[in-house]
Amino acid sequence: MDKVSNVRVGPLPNDSPYMKPFRLYFKQNGKEKNWDLVKAHDSVAIITLNKTRNKLVVVKQFRPAVYYGQICDYLNSVGSEVDSEKVIEMFPPKNAITMELCAGIVDKDISLVEIAREELIEECGYDVPVNRIEEVIRFRSGVGTTGSLQVMYYCEVTDDDKINGAGGGVDDELIDVHELSIEEAKEMLKQGTEHTSPPGFLFGILWFLTNKAQNL
Amino acid sequence: MDKVSNVRVGPLPNDSPYMKPFRLYFKQNGKEKNWDLVKAHDSVAIITLNKTRNKLVVVKQFRPAVYYGQICDYLNSVGSEVDSEKVIEMFPPKNAITMELCAGIVDKDISLVEIAREELIEECGYDVPVNRIEEVIRFRSGVGTTGSLQVMYYCEVTDDDKINGAGGGVDDELIDVHELSIEEAKEMLKQGTEHTSPPGFLFGILWFLTNKAQNL
């Protein structure tokens, strides 16, 4: 997953299906203002507990955006003379592997909980009926950039729900499924730690520890 | 703050200082890939408790990105025939006012905790020395889009730290300072609720309730 090479940066093509930037104009309290935005899909995420072992099921993947966040100051300092091999050596791509909740974008015309169910199959290999997936909370991610909705769910699975050969993502996705003990989850959230994970993951783990872990 | 009108959408100018989109190319496990990104500033956020009243100090502001997230399906459905007054009527801008932690972007060459200190003055009007601002956790926001770092702090303030006339943001910012009781904070995080807030805010509030609120 972290065998990454040949890193280079180019302009955003006008026809990018993933990133549609624009400017929103408006008047606020009588004053003309504008805000630069990017359109992003809404998404779902699922806090997943495997009851067979009482372990949280999470996913790990190389995140180009996180990698760029780590290398951008260096890239800017060297200008156009980027030596990809040197970048890789100075900034090991494995440091841009994130730990996240099972999640996916809303790009189909089915219910949000159905999308959550499909992501549990595609990313983690567990097939459960939607009535076992409970909604936790809804919020807006990227309030300064995308403002897209994320719906967070909680689901308990067992090894009996596993589909042989499923999980790890679809198409070109390279997703590792990982299990996290409750002790590891607590340790992870200790004050002073640094994560490649997004805040929604940290919230999901802390929500689980607060609301579900006591009874295990 | 929610007196918003004349909403329209235009292309992103090439010289936007806030939004720099591009494409990152790389090879992963032998396969050529790319990912569309937008460069965003790193940021700091401060979980703030006013000890004089044992209330959390949070900020509220109209977020154009959240508003766009709410109206974009409608805008797309009507194409170029957007009637701004109708948009405002159908989607009241007050629904895009977010509740957030005091926060700010890293756009100065001073330490992160110094930036946190300045944001506490500018947004909330409290002036505290940096040794009263403790680091909580570091994570990456927008792992699919920006990958920028956010450092979260915790700070206890009192009414004696208040600077007369400070707070509410600088330049054109319209930021309302709001106080949240511990009961209100608990209520807010109840299962099944919907927020305009970002996940970092929800994590910060839950972290506070878990780690700091018991002793009050």
TrEMBL record, chains A, B:
EC numbers listed for it are: 3.6.1.45
Q: Name one GO molecular function term.
A: metal ion binding
Q: Does the keyword Cytoplasm apply?
A: yes
- Which reaction(s) does its UniProt entry say it catalyses? UDP-sugar + H2O = UMP + alpha-D-aldose 1-phosphate
Source organism per entry reads Clunio marinus
Which UniProt keywords are listed? Cytoplasm, Hydrolase, Magnesium
Which GO cellular component does the record give, naming just one?
A: cytoplasm
Q: Where in the cell is it found?
A: Cytoplasm
The alphabetized list of GO BP terms reads: nucleoside phosphate metabolic process; ribose phosphate metabolic process
Q: What is this protein called?
A: Uridine diphosphate glucose pyrophosphatase NUDT14
Q: Which InterPro entries match?
A: NDP_pyrophosphatase, NUDIX_hydrolase-like_dom_sf, NUDIX_hydrolase_dom
